[in-house]
């Protein structure tokens, strides 16, 4: 049964979620499906996991489909958006979630690794927004970019990743200024410590319990649903007067 609340109804809306074969992206895709959306599941490497998400969505969504996209390549972004429009006919909500992270000391970061991080996280987000723009203008749609607490306070073990996420926050502000008069809202979500498949081992460690957990005032690690719920709100009519903002989802770990 669809969970339709006043102000939160995505029936007949097309929602694109990049990096949605697992983790936060998968939870965002499922959450939009619960509210009636047609969902484009974008993935790059793991077709099996993407198909698993699609199988789950088929139980609750009107329509869902998977699309392979290397967001570090502009040609792949353009091809993917063309296929999404051919399949769904419109684009109402764009969630730029796909990203990569590698923790490396600043002195040891090589150009290849730097390019991989920046091309995926920043260039991918930038051009997915650009090529989606004509369709978002038609629908008066909304963009939600997934940033990171690392982009707000810096990351000692991943300065290239943190720089890319800080740039996403700046991009969000720029696009909101440019396109608010044309009916497009642009916001970002900045997650803190979120338990996903990639991070679950960290949160089981003694290091987490003694060094990370005490820094979170709410006293728990975040869950992908915490981020997904924020995305649902920001994309809904309930947030109709919110644009250009970065919403922290971090249990109070970082305050701005």
Describe the structure.
- This protein has helices at 23-34, 47-58, 74-88, 111-139, 150-153, 159-179, 200-204, 206-212, 224-235; strands at 14-17, 38-43, 64-68, 93-96, 142-146, 185-191, 246-249.
- It is of the alpha/beta class.
- It has a 7-stranded parallel beta sheet, with helices on both faces.
- α1 runs parallel beside α2 (47-58) and α4 runs parallel beside α6 (159-179).
What key attributes describe this structure?
single chain, alpha/beta, Rossmann fold, 9 helices, 256 residues
Q: What shape does the CA trace take?
A: globular
The CATH homologous superfamily is named NAD(P)-binding Rossmann-like Domain
Our count of domains comes out at 1
Chain-averaged pLDDT: 92
The number of distinct helices, counting runs of at least 4 residues, comes to: 9
Order of helices and strands: EHEHEHEHEHHEHHHE
> How is the main sheet built?
7 strands, parallel
- The top-level CATH class is Alpha Beta
Summed up:
This protein is of the alpha/beta class. Helices cover 46% and strands 14% of the residues. The protein contains nine helices and seven strands.
